[in-house]
User: Which sequence fits this backbone?
């Protein structure tokens, strides 16, 4: 190297510094290696990492509340859930605007279902109210129609609310569509989305807001022209509330056409018969009278929530912090414990049954052991469902085993053993199904243990047992470790076998996850339960690594 | 049509079947040439293929792809909609699921009078289908019922045979295991009926906080003797094995068990619960696929096609005008009318789920029931 240091960097044959040319060669190699694993990498990212990330996200995601009830969640910020009083009329008004839009978009039932996970009764409250929400504000609609007949015409609303620029754009779009129809061309340009007139939102904040929502929904959901559609009753409610608040000076600032309509309306509203919104809600469902309903909305108005994770461990989030779940809804801790206990039991049974078989396989003459190995593998190649169903045939009360026991007189015909649709059935069937996962790693490890060691121990005076226990067994431990990890991790997430033979006492947490995915559609809770299961497996793996050492695990 | 009308129509018995093919099938413009349909699999799907799909393919050349996912249709449709890629064209669901899909905007709302064919007797579709049109998205096909089967050879019963539903809760006279669905619907209604609640007051009682607990308390009395099912085939299997002595399932399943397989099992029609099954169209289908589906539906739900389906399975057509056309079983040649849930003999006591009550309370009741099961 002294030569290199004295004459500068070492050069390659083509004159570039050796370091750089080496790097380049290596980079090309690395790139090639990366290209080679790229299909696998992409495959794993798409089919494994991405779904898991998505699942983790779903378990905390809660945008549905603030997305569906944006005004309500804002208005509720000032409400004190401990006061024992119902929220103010402003909150009820905000809820009316949110709900009428949600009902139009068909979002309110989903929101009700979501909130029902936290407080029972919410789903039915939202459904019942959603059916009536169209009528809220109808009193004002009628009174406006009487006082200022203009306001009953959809066109008037567009005059008051719409940006003239938007009206021009819309007219141009309609003309283009008509022209396209005439010539028979395809026309799929979307119409320009409704825009509010400058300044109208300052004077009529609620009415402008709700009307804009109405106009956009009319366009997007129903493909209608807002100028031809009668606004929702709650739009009139909003106008009434706005006009009650603003002074005549504000109306003066409007353009001529709007003023012509709204000035008489403004004069008239003072004489309107008013109606308490809270009463309308209580009439739709008396549940709205309970502060618990409101505090649930308040507690779940943030975009992310620990609610699903809390529910997964039988807790629930309330406005005052975390509390225990109602006694008659606590099941998840019990299910997690049962899943762990039964997976351990299955793992233990697999060791007990698998070890002697693997020992035989490894030590019998090749011809016999090959036949035995085929017997081990044969069920492995049989469909999982077939094996599970055959356990039904064997274990059920009118099944083969009970029949035999009755026939030899061990069991009375009237008291046949219950061996299926309970924990016992699940453990038996799953032990059978997972047994090859224990035997194969054990066998491959035992195959590598030289028989000379045991012979040497015996020749030094060890008894059969000592030779096995002190010399043979410690060398087979890596196989036990590998088998245990395989069996345990497979067992803890098992689903179909417990579903078929587990009844109600032999089911696992995974059966609940499946139930929430496909039946109750509580995907957030399913995701949280799945995340916890994943965390438990990783934790146990880590503990195992600390105690046994993952390097001591061998698959052969 | 009320149940009364429906049954009187059935009583008119079978008239000779009409023309096999609708000769006047209008051409389909701007239509896809295949349909991905979702159904329940098994004998039911076969009856749909024989009665609707094969004749339609013969007339139009449309190919069908069948997906047996109706069980999880709501979850899967929601997932497809979130992913923005609807792969299904037509989905067969039970009434309550259609309600849910319709509420969430996952199914398309239709105008029944516009898209469906008038009855053979000239009646408007909404009149002809009547009560079975339970919401704006649902295009009814059949009336089915959930009812009980029991074994006729149980020695411990000392020759007694159940003659009413409440034998279910009578463990003294009728000892043995029962098989019930792993869901609250129907079970809690039956429990209350046998706990002395009148049919008219059922949902008033259930609406009170104590009502559900009362039903669960009644079910508690047989919980230790109950094996729960989640697939309709489980009860017939358990009855055939002698694993249970009585159990609930769909009437068509019991029909195959008793009539086709000749098992020592009898049917208990008492307090059978009626349900409707039908099609929904996923929302936001592309135009050509939607056109094809509408064209198919117009054909597949006409009077003759619905009556044809009853040749293959013992479920009643949802159209009143189809009732008189119900004929004999395609293979066995027996009259199908006496095996229909709508037969007057079979429906002295019957129940129809209150769809609105269930839509409102399903989430709560389901959660409570599942927790009750696990405890």
Assistant:
């Amino acid at each position: 190297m002294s030569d290199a240091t004295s004459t500068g960097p070492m050069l390659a044959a083509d004159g570039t510094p050796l370091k750089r040319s080496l790097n380049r060669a290596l980079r090309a190699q690395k790139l090639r290696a990366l290209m080679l694993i790229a299909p696998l990498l992409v495959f794993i990212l798409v089919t494994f990492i991405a779904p898991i990330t998505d699942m983790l996200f779903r378990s905390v995601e809660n945008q549905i509340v603030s997305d569906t009830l944006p005004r309500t969640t804002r208005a509720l910020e000032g409400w004190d859930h401990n006061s024992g009083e119902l929220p103010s009329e402003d909150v009820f008004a905000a809820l009316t605007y949110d709900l009428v839009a949600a009902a139009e978009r068909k979002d309110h039932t989903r929101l009700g279902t979501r909130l029902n996970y936290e407080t029972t009764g919410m789903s039915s409250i939202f459904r019942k109210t959603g059916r009536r929400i169209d009528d809220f504000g109808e009193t004002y609609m009628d009174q406006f129609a009487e006082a200022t007949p203009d306001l009953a015409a959809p066109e008037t609303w567009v005059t008051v609310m719409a940006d003239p620029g938007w009206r021009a754009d819309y007219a141009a779009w309609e003309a283009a569509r008509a022209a396209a129809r005439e010539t028979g061309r395809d026309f799929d340009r979307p119409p320009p989305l409704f825009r509010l007139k400058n300044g109208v939102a300052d004077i009529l904040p609620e009415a402008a807001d709700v009307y804009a929502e109405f106009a956009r929904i009319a366009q997007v959901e129903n493909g209608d022209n807002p100028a031809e559609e009668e606004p929702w009753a709650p739009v009139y409610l909003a106008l009434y509330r706005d006009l009650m608040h603003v002074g005549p000076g504000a109306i003066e600032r409007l353009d001529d056409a709007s003023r012509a309509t709204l000035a008489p309306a403004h004069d008239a509203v003072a004489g309107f018969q008013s109606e308490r919104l809270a009463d309308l809600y209580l009439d739709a469902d008396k549940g709205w009278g309970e502060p618990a309903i409101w505090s649930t909305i308040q507690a779940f108005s943030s975009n992310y929530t620990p609610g699903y994770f809390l529910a997964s461990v039988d807790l629930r989030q309330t406005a005052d912090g975390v509390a225990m779940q109602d006694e008659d809804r606590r099941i998840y801790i019990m299910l997690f414990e049962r899943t762990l206990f039964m997976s351990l039991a299955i793992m233990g049974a697999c060791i007990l049954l698998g070890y002697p078989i693997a020992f035989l396989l490894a030590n019998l003459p090749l011809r016999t052991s090959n036949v035995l190995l085929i017997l081990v593998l044969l069920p492995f190649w049989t469909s999982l469902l077939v094996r599970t169903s055959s356990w039904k045939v064997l274990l059920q009360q009118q099944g083969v085993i009970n029949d035999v026991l009755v026939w030899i007189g061990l069991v009375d015909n009237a008291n046949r053993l219950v061996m299926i649709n309970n924990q016992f059935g699940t453990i038996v069937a799953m032990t059978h199904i997972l047994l090859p996962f224990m035997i194969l790693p054990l066998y491959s490890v035992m195959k590598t243990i030289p028989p000379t060691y045991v012979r040497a121990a015996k020749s030094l005076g060890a008894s059969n047992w000592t030779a096995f226990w002190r010399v043979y067994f410690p060398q087979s431990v890596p196989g036990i470790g590998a088998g245990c990890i395989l069996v345990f991790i497979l067992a803890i997430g098992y689903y179909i076998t417990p579903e078929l033979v587990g009844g109600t006492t032999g089911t696992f947490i995974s059966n609940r996850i499946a139930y929430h995915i496909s039946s109750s559609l509580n995907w957030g809770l399913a995701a949280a339960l799945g995340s916890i299961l994943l965390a438990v497996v990783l934790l146990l793996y880590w503990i195992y690594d600390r105690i046994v050492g993952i390097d001591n695990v061998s698959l052969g | 049509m009320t149940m009364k009308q429906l049954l009187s129509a059935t009583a008119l018995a079978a008239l000779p079947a009409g023309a096999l093919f609708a000769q006047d099938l209008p051409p389909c413009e701007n239509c896809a040439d295949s349909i991905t349909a979702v159904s329940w699999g098994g004998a039911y799907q076969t009856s749909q293929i024989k009665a609707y799909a094969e004749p339609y393919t013969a007339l139009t050349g449309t190919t069908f792809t069948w997906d047996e996912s109706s069980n999880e249709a709501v979850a899967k449709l929601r997932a497809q909609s979130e992913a923005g890629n609807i792969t299904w064209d037509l989905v067969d669901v039970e009434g309550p699921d259609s309600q849910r899909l319709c509420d969430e905007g996952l199914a398309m709302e239709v105008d029944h009078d516009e898209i469906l064919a008038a009855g053979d007797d000239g009646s408007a579709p909404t009149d002809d289908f009547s009560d079975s049109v339970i919401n704006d998205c649902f295009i009814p096909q059949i009336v089915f019922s959930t009812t009980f089967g029991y074994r006729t050879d149980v020695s411990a019963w000392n020759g007694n045979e159940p003659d009413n539903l409440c034998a279910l809760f009578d463990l003294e006279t009728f000892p043995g295991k029962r098989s019930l669905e792993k869901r609250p619907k129907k079970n809690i209604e039956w429990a209350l009926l046998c706990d002395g609640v009148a049919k008219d007051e059922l949902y008033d009682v259930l609406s009170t906080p104590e009502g559900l607990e009362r039903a669960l308390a009644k079910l508690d009395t047989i919980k230790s003797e109950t094996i729960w099912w989640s697939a309709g085939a489980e009860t017939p299997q358990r009855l055939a094995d002698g694993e249970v002595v009585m159990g609930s399932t769909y009437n068509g399943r019991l029909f195959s068990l008793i009539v086709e397989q000749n098992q020592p099992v009898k049917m208990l029609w008492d307090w059978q619960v009626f349900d409707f099954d039908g099609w929904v169209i996923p929302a936001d289908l592309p135009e050509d696929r939607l056109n094809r589906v509408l064209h198919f539906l117009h054909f597949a739900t006409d009077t003759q096609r619905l009556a044809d389906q009853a040749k293959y399975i013992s479920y009643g057509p949802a159209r009143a005008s189809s009732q008189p056309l119900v004929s004999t079983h395609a293979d066995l040649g027996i009259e199908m009318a006496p095996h229909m849930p709508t037969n007057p003999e079979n429906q002295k006591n019957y129940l129809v789920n209150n769809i609105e009550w269930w839509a409102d309370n399903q989430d709560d009741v389901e959660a409570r029931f599942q927790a009750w099961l696990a405890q």
Residues 3-144+276-344 of chain B form a domain with the D-Maltodextrin-Binding Protein; domain 2 fold (CATH 3.40.190.10). Strands of chain B lie at 34-38, 63-67, 90-94, 139-151, 178-181, 226-229, 246-250, 265-280, 316-317, 350-352. The two ends of chain B are 43 Å apart (CA to CA). Chain B has 14 helices and ten strands.
